[in-house]
């Protein structure tokens, strides 16, 4: 499956198609990520445009006739692009959206990164992420390797999905977290 680079001179966005139009044969979205099975489909080229939210005439014009265009679920196709897809017999298929899993973020700092950590924690909360603060709880001087190692261990042991370590210089915590 090839993925094309986005075009810089794409046509302006028009309103989305109404009525939930899709190409014939797009079928059940749950089976669209599987490899094609028929010999006829094996000969057809797939083009992955799932990074785009809107497909315009510019994207469709560069595709060969008879191919298969893979879009992400919820992507919009402009009316002119839809007409071109039909005229060039390009089949649309949709990738289903992944279920958003709640992520747990491990976070720590040294005394130099304490105020930044407080801001990041506030931002994570506003975005709806759960977090686990590994310290410190004040801006008093601390041994940064202990905190960086705690975050790295939580991520390595899969207790947390992501880790953020902040310190005044960045090098020491980076070395400690990557060991």
Describe how the helices and strands are arranged.
Layout lengths: L1 E2 L35 H4 L3 E3 L5 E2 L1 H5 L6 E5 L3 E2 L1 H9 L3 E5 L8 E6 L4 H14 L2 E4 L10 H13 L5 E5 L4 H8 L1
Parallel strand pairs: 1-2, 2-4, 3-5, 4-6, 7-8, 7-9
Helix pairs in contact: 5-6
The main β sheet shows up as:
4 strands, parallel
Mean of residue pLDDT values: 74
Helix-and-strand structural type: alpha/beta
User: What is the total tally of β strands?
Assistant: 9
Largest beta sheet: what is the strand line-up?
A: 1-2-4-6
Shape: elongated
State the helicity in percent bands: 25-40%
Please trace the helix and strand order, writing H or E for each element: EHEEHEEHEEHEHEH
Number of helical elements: 6
Q: Give the low-pLDDT segments.
A: 1-39
Structure, briefly:
The protein has 179 residues and is α/β, with parallel strands linked by helices. The protein contains six helices and nine strands, in the order βαββαββαββαβαβα.
How would you explain this protein's 3D organization?
This protein is an alpha/beta fold. The protein contains six helices and nine strands. The strands form three sheets. It has a four-stranded parallel beta sheet, with no helix packed on it. Strands 8-7-9 form a three-stranded parallel beta sheet, sandwiched between helices. Strand 1, helix 1 and strand 2 form a beta-alpha-beta unit. Helix 5 runs parallel beside helix 6. The chain is elongated. The two termini are 37 Å apart. 25% of the residues are buried. The N terminus is likely disordered.
């Amino acid at each position: 499956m090839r993925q094309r680079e986005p075009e810089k001179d794409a046509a302006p966005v028009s309103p989305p198609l109404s009525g939930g139009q899709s190409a014939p044969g797009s079928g059940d979205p749950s089976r669209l990520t599987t490899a094609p099975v028929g010999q006829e489909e094996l000969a057809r080229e797939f083009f992955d445009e799932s990074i785009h939210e809107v497909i315009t005439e510019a994207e469709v014009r560069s595709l060969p006739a008879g191919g298969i265009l893979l879009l992400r679920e919820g992507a919009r196709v402009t009316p002119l692009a839809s007409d071109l897809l039909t005229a060039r017999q390009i089949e649309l298929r949709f990738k289903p959206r992944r279920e958003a899993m709640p992520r747990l973020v491990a976070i720590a700092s040294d005394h130099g990164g304490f105020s930044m950590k407080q801001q990041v924690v506030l931002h994570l909360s506003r975005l709806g992420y759960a977090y686990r603060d590994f310290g410190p709880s004040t801006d008093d001087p601390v041994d940064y390797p202990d905190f960086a190692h705690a975050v790295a261990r939580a991520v390595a042991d899969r207790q947390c999905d992501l880790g953020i370590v902040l310190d005044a210089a960045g090098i020491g915590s980076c070395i400690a977290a990557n060991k």
